[in-house]
Write a structure and sequence with these properties.
Blueprint lengths: L1 H28 L13 E9 L2 E12 L4 E8 L11 E9 L4 E8 L10 E6 L2 E8 L2 E10 L4 E9 L5 E10 L4
Antiparallel strand pairs: 1-2, 1-10, 2-3, 3-4, 4-5, 5-6, 6-7, 7-8, 8-9, 9-10
């Protein structure tokens, strides 16, 4: 009985030291994340282009959430889209991991949890961020490219076909809606 009491007494100082060691990392993670490129994506957007060879007309709303750690991007088929257009809805969470020095993109959409298991990891090159998703059925690329001159974004999504060649999955342009 006495030895278990001694073990418990020795445990508490170790736990306290462990928690204190984690405190600086937790405090650093709580500071606001600011990114001059990603900041351009906030607000309301009209998105048009093609997905799998079909026309797409979506609305996009992006805002900072979760203590300014993520940009939440909400995408939905526009109410003005043709009635025969496939309906789509998604929420993206775009963040940055300063330890790994890379962007992180989590997609949750109407296709369910199976395709939401994979995170995209991205790197910045000028005014573009290129994400790589390593899905069970193969790699998938999503690039967000900002064009300053036109205040617009291009979202290009690519996948490998059965022959191993990269093909366009989606090519979409985001512009501010006219008032």
């Amino acid at each position: 009985m006495k030895s278990s009491s001694i073990r418990i007494l020795n445990f508490w100082p170790l736990l306290a030291m462990f928690l204190l060691a984690l405190a600086p990392a937790r405090l650093a993670a709580q500071t606001d994340w600011h990114d001059d490129l990603v900041d351009h994506m906030t607000g309301l957007w009209k998105m048009e282009g093609s997905v799998m060879g079909r026309d797409a007309h979506h609305q996009v709303q992006a805002e900072w959430v979760l203590n300014h750690q993520f940009l939440r991007i909400y995408e939905k088929t526009s109410a003005e889209a043709p009635v025969d257009e496939h309906k789509y809805e998604a929420t993206w969470f775009l963040g940055y991991d300063p330890v790994s020095e890379r962007y992180v993109l989590h997609l949750l959409d109407v296709f369910g949890a199976r395709f939401s298991e994979t995170l995209g990891y991205g790197t910045r090159d000028g005014d573009a961020i290129r994400f790589v998703f390593e899905y069970p059925d193969g790699p998938f690329h999503t690039s967000f490219r900002w064009t300053r001159e036109t205040n617009s974004w291009q979202w290009l999504m690519e996948q490998k076909n059965k022959e191993g060649k990269w093909t366009n999955f989606a090519d979409l342009k985001l512009v501010r809606p006219s008032r």
